[in-house]
Design brief:
By secondary structure, the chain is an alpha+beta fold. The chain is 37% helix and 15% strand. This is Protein kinase domain-containing protein.
Length: 228
C-alpha cells in the first residue's frame, strides 16, 4: 500500500498537492496502474489532475496529484443520524455513476467501488461541489479474453463486493455497477442491510436482496426521485 502526504510547491507554497509514495520493497506495486488511469482520464470531469510521476533513488515510486477534499463516507458519518437527505443522496448517486461511466468509457474497471473512494473538491475552491473518483490501485483494463472461473482474486471491500467475485469470476463493468448500487442504498438509508451481519453471511444476504421485486422497487423509487 502507498502512503499519502500533503505537499506544497517550493516556489508557490499556496499550491497544495498530494504525493502518493510506494516503497521499493512493496510486495504489490500499484502506483503504475494508478498513473495509467490518470493519464487515460486526463481532463475528464471528476478525475484528479496528475502533476508528476517519478521514481526515487531507492526505487520508490511517487505520484503527485491534485489535492482533494473529504471522502463521501466521512461526510455521511459526520451528519446527524449519519444519513443524507434524499436530494443529496440522489445527487451523489448520479454524480458517482457519471464517474464510473467515464472510467468504463476509457476501458477501465475500478474494482473497489465504495463511498470512501469518492471525494469532493477542496472547500472554498472552484470544485468544492464536484465529486471525484480516486484510488485506482485495483483497477484493471477490460480484457478481450477473460481468465477462467476461479482465477480472479477476491477483490475490494466485503460490504460492497459484487456477488460474482465471491466465486472468483472475472470482473466485468457490471460488477462496478453492482457495488455502486449497494453504495446508493447506503446513501439513501444510512446503512447496508448486512452491516451488522458476520462476513460469512454477507453473500447469502446479497443473493436474497437480488430478488427481482426488491430491485424493481428500488428502481421505481429512484425514477420518481429523479423526476421530482
Amino acid at each position: 500500500f502507498s502512503r499519502v502526504y500533503f505537499v506544497r510547491h517550493k516556489k508557490n507554497p499556496a499550491h497544495e498537492c498530494m504525493a502518493k509514495v510506494e516503497a521499493h520493497n512493496e510486495k504489490k506495486r500499484t502506483l503504475g496502474i494508478e498513473a495509467r488511469v490518470y493519464l487515460d482520464c486526463k481532463g475528464v470531469c471528476g478525475f484528479a489532475e496528475l502533476y508528476d510521476r517519478f521514481q526515487t533513488s531507492d526505487g520508490s515510486r511517487v505520484l503527485v496529484i491534485q489535492r482533494l477534499g473529504t471522502d463521501l463516507n466521512r461526510i455521511r458519518l459526520s451528519l446527524p443520524n449519519q444519513s443524507l437527505t434524499q436530494a443529496d443522496a440522489l445527487k451523489l448517486c448520479l454524480e458517482t455513476f457519471a464517474r464510473i461511466w467515464s472510467l468504463h468509457d476509457r476501458n477501465w474497471m475500478h474494482r473497489d467501488i465504495k463511498p470512501s473512494n469518492f471525494v469532493v473538491g477542496l472547500p472554498q475552491s472552484e470544485m468544492d461541489d464536484q465529486v471525484f473518483i480516486i484510488d485506482f490501485g485495483l483497477a484493471r483494463q477490460r480484457q478481450e479474453k477473460s481468465r477462467p472461473t476461479g482465477a480472479c482474486p477476491i477483490l475490494g471491500t466485503d460490504a460492497y463486493r459484487p456477488i460474482s467475485n465471491y466465486s472468483r469470476v472475472e470482473y466485468q463493468p457490471k460488477d462496478d455497477i453492482e457495488s455502486w448500487f449497494y453504495m446508493c442504498h447506503e446513501f439513501f438509508n444510512g446503512a447496508l442491510p448486512w452491516d451488522k451481519l458476520p462476513h460469512s453471511s454477507t453473500l447469502d444476504f446479497k443473493i436474497h436482496c437480488r430478488n427481482w421485486d426488491v430491485i424493481c422497487c428500488c428502481l421505481i423509487c429512484l425514477t420518481r426521485l429523479t423526476r421530482s
